[in-house]
Design a protein that fits this description.
The structure holds two protein chains of two kinds.
Chain A lengths: L10 H17 L2 E7 L5 E6 L7 H12 L3 E6 L3 E7 L3 H10 L7 E3 L3
Parallel strand pairs in A: 1-5
Antiparallel strand pairs in A: 1-2, 2-4, 3-4
Chain B lengths: L10 H23 L1 H5 L17 H10 L2 H15 L7 H8 L8 H36 L4 H19 L10 H13 L2 H4 L6 H15 L1 H9 L9 E4 L3 E4 L2 H8 L3 H12 L3 E3 L5 E4 L4 H16 L9 E6 L2 E6 L5 E3 L14 H4 L3
Antiparallel strand pairs in B: 1-2, 2-4, 3-4, 5-6, 6-7
Helix pairs in contact in B: 1-5, 1-6, 3-6, 4-6, 4-14, 5-6, 6-7, 6-8, 7-8, 8-10, 10-11, 13-14
Chain lengths: 111, 357
């Protein structure tokens, strides 16, 4: 009689990995959102940047490319979020796709 | 500011789009009419000029097919708008002007959509006309007056004004009726019967579709007639920085969704907050225009209402173990849908207000 715990593959561990994978696939999206400020001013946030990209450098490139200011915000839940002034959603998504990020992973929100 | 009070981040886009918009209808106009004159004379016996679109239902279907599913969603408000044209600004216009940037992919689709109604209008007309035309050619060649031909013409005249006024989107099944008689006429006198030449492929194709649609009109109505339409959201401004979405309950009812779910989605997508007032209206913080809310609603429908398998809107959303499942009433498919998650919310407004006292 075999002992479950001594099996080469631990069924529970696998499940855990599966579960994390599932969650990962959902949160792998890069979310680009817009928020209204006062007047006709807006704020664009970019959330969920893959780990291999350096948010600092990306922010710098964004600021230069879009001629806007921006900042890096540390959020407890969402991690590091890039915040830019103005509605930069299209520009961001084209910039990212031009630089080799798949369009399918980018989700643009807002109106 | 008060002159142009509505908040519109895509204002810049509008100029660019406006150009495309003026171009497009031309293209659309030219498109359906172009093929027609080659084969068909576009004058009647009485010498009146008739506007002829593409000749057959299959052409109509072809052009319909080009516009994707996405278009259907786009169009669903558009159609409605068309009908209300007299009172309201046509949404088609609003659409093309303002399709928000992230719809870059679908932006062309929108403009297409806007032609679409035009095209459709023409097509409807032309289908009758086409059949009429064949009878007609024959008539000319044999110089034998056919009562059927006259009949057709009557039908056409009868329908034209109707089509012009209306969007032809109403539940008109007018062409089931005019379709039938011409086909009967065509049966005996296809153009190739009178001449020595062989029949050409397009002719046969036309004949096939004419017969097919005559035999089962249901095909036609399902391909172009049945459209999912919702009343466009009515957005008013309340004060300076709040918008009121008045018919949210109606729309939710139409979509068979809980208002809470829809509202949650709206808020998380638009990155704002709000509340439902006593009259069941939704008060949204921030300035939003109708087309903006409409865009968000469209995305909601794509995501949470339309069945991915059969594209039917006849679906139910149920919650089981904290997961939402959408089951389709027409095809029976069932799938889970993403929970609505609101993402990162940036700090806007005064920090002192947010600080716990």
């Amino acid at each position: 009689m075999s002992v479950q715990n001594l099996n080469a593959v631990d069924p529970f561990a696998e499940e855990e990995i599966l579960a994390t994978n599932d969650v990962g696939s959902q949160s792998e999206y890069i979310h680009i959102r817009i928020q209204q400020r006062n007047g006709r001013k807006t704020l664009t946030t970019l959330q969920g940047l893959p780990k291999q990209y350096d948010p600092k450098k990306l922010l710098k490139a964004f600021k230069k490319e879009f001629a806007c200011n921006g900042t890096l915000v540390d959020d407890e839940k969402m991690g590091q979020v890039i915040q830019l002034q103005g509605d930069q959603r299209v520009k961001i998504s084209t910039f990212l796709t031009d630089n080799g990020i798949e369009k399918a992973t980018i989700k643009v929100h807002g109106f | 500011m008060s002159e142009e009070p509505l908040f519109d981040p895509s204002l810049k886009k509008r100029k660019k789009k406006a150009v495309a918009f003026t171009e497009d209808p031309l293209g659309a106009d030219a498109d359906p009419t172009a093929p027609a004159p080659e084969t068909i004379d576009n004058t009647t016996t009485t010498g009146e000029t008739v506007d002829l679109g593409p000749t057959t239902a299959h052409e109509q279907m072809k052009s319909n097919g080009e516009e994707g599913e996405d278009d259907d969603f786009k169009a669903m408000f558009g159609d409605l708008k068309k009908k209300k044209k007299k009172k309201e600004i046509p949404m088609d216009l609003a659409n093309s002007g303002t399709s928000t940037p992230k719809d870059a992919v679908s932006a062309p689709a929108i403009t297409e959509d806007l032609d679409f109604s035009d095209i459709k209008k023409k097509k409807k007309k032309s289908k009758k006309a086409a059949l009429d035309m064949e009878a007609f050619e024959k008539e000319l060649s044999e110089s034998k007056s056919k009562s059927a031909g006259d009949d057709d013409e009557d039908v056409e005249v009868e329908h034209n004004p109707n089509l012009d006024i209306d969007d032809a989107d109403l539940e008109n099944d007018p062409f089931a009726q005019p379709d039938a008689p011409p086909v009967g006429v065509d049966m005996g006198n296809e153009p190739w019967l009178t001449s020595d030449r062989d029949y050409a492929y397009p002719e046969l194709l036309t004949r096939f579709y004419a017969l097919l649609h005559a035999a089962n009109p249901a095909l036609l109505s399902s391909s172009s007639q049945k459209r999912y339409t919702i009343a466009p959201p009515s957005i008013h401004r309340e004060g300076n920085k709040r918008s009121v979405f008045a018919n949210v309950t109606d729309i939710c009812k139409k979509m068979h969704r809980q208002p809470e779910h829809v509202i949650q989605f709206l808020f998380s997508e638009m990155g704002t907050t709000g509340s439902v007032d006593g009259a069941g209206r939704l008060v949204i913080k921030g300035r939003f225009q109708q087309k903006q809310v409409e865009n968000v609603l469209r995305r909601y429908i794509v995501e949470y209402v339309a069945c991915k398998t059969c594209k039917s809107m006849d679906t139910l959303l149920t919650k089981e173990n904290r997961i939402f499942f959408m089951s389709c009433e027409s095809c029976g498919s069932r799938r889970s849908v993403n929970a609505i998650k609101s993402g990162f919310q940036a700090q806007v407004g005064k920090r002192s207000k947010n600080r716990p006292a």
